[in-house]
Amino acid sequence: MLPKGDALWVGERLHQCLEACINGQWVRSDYYFPCLAILHALEELDMVRSSLRSELCVSKLGYRGRIDIHGLLADGRVCIVEIKATVGPYLRRPKPAEVIQMGCYAALSDAQAPRLACVRISLPSRRLGVFIMDISPKTMQQIRRDVA
């Protein structure tokens, strides 16, 4: 059975179920596959499962936001993940605003050389796409200057 509702509602519900899945709690049957697929993708990104934090609030310099998934890679670097669910059949690259958002989250969380990832999941087609960006310390310095 596929999740039903408009994209915003489905996305909110996916985030709730993913947080439950990360914490080893029960997940609704219609969100079970998407949550497992996302967790598998996070493991493929080399994220340490025990470090995963969902819906992490960050606030600094008058900015605030909520990181969908924050965790550590096996090499110790921070990984910031934006989860996007779609009720359509297609997976698209991250929008420029989404990349900027993830970069700002990295700056707000004091990451030095983070990996940014946008995970898009099409619920009807059960397809998942992962878009990865490794950010250099020099680029992070520039982002921090721009955010401040």
CA distance, first residue to last residue: 46 Å
Strand content: 25-35%
Approximate helicity band: 25-40%
If helices are DSSP runs of H or I spanning 4 or more residues, what is the number of helices? Answer: 4
Uncertain regions spanning at least 5 consecutive residues = none
Overview of the molecule:
The protein has four helices and five strands; from the N terminus they run H-H-E-E-E-H-E-E-H. With 148 residues, it is of the alpha+beta class. It has one domain. A five-stranded mixed beta sheet has the order 1-2-3-4-5, with helices on both faces. Helix 3 packs across helix 4. The longest helix is centred in the first third of the chain and has 16 residues. 30% of the residues are buried.
List keywords for this structure.
148 residues, alpha+beta, 5-stranded mixed sheet, 4 helices, 38% helix
Brief sketch in words of this structure:
With 148 residues, this protein is of the alpha+beta class. It has helices spanning 7-22, 29-44, 96-108, 137-147, and strands at residues 53-60, 63-72, 78-86, 115-122, 127-134.
Helices and strands, with pairings:
Layout (H helix, E strand, L loop, with lengths): L6 H16 L6 H16 L8 E8 L2 E10 L5 E9 L9 H13 L6 E8 L4 E8 L2 H11 L1
Parallel strand pairs: 3-4
Antiparallel strand pairs: 1-2, 2-3, 4-5
